[in-house]
Amino acid sequence: MGDPWTTSTAALHPPVQRAPLGSLPPMRLALTKRSGDAIRILLHLASMPAGTRQTSAELAEASGVSQGNIPTLVAALSRAGLLDCARGPGGGCALARDPADIDMAEAVTAVEGTLEAERCALDEVRCGDRAYPCGLHQTWTAIVSNLSDQLAGLSLAQALDRDVANRKAAAGQLTQAPRRPRS
E-strand spans in the chain? Predict the structure, then answer.
């Protein structure tokens, strides 16, 4: 028998039998309510003519976000340089930049901070606070990196265009009469 420290991990851990891709139920990874609310506010403002200011009440009504949550979200988005807000008569919030120059990663990190896991999935210690990474660290890091890249590659303008196209497609599907099979 060889030295246990030099034994390959493949010998210690036989390959796991995995289910074929697509055969598992969908995994639920979702944006937080806070991120969703911030994105809806930004999408609403992106749909307005450039420079249009909206009050908190107008933002709440148009985006479906609770009026009580608007100040916190607007403050975070403003600090991140995504909104330009002014108080008083004629005040309100407008996009600080062109929607094509704002990416979805900026929107999410403005209200969430980092996309990094707050704690390890295996225990209460953050992977960065231990002497070694946990068994999920490499995989989770790759997932977060891919998610960040995907969000960074989608501008607010592109997301709005997709949303408009999807709504039109859905409306067209809903207004078409069902086809009857020929007899």
Answer: 83-86, 92-95
Contact between 111 and 136 (Cβ < 8 Å) = no
Q: Closest Cα to residue 157, out of 17, 59, 46?
A: 46
- Asked whether 127 and 133 are in contact (CB, 8 A), the reply is yes
Q: Residue 123 carries which side chain, given as an amino acid letter?
A: D
Question: Rounded to an integer, what distance in angstroms lies between the CA atom of residue 89 and that of residue 87?
Answer: 7
3-41 core/surface letters (b: 16 or more CB in 10 A; e: else) = eeeeeeeeeeeeeeeeeeeeeeeeeeeebeebbbbbbbb
Q: What is the pTM of this model?
A: 0.76
CA atoms 32, 34, 35, 40: torsion sign: positive
Given a contact cutoff of 8 angstroms between Cβ atoms, the answer to whether 106 and 39 are in contact is no
* Percent with pLDDT over 70 in the chain: 79
Taking phi over 0 as left and psi of -120 to 50 as alpha, with beta for the rest, 22 belongs to left
Distance between CA atoms of residues 8 and 181, nearest Å: 61
Angle at 36 between CA 32 and CA 39, to 5 degrees: 140
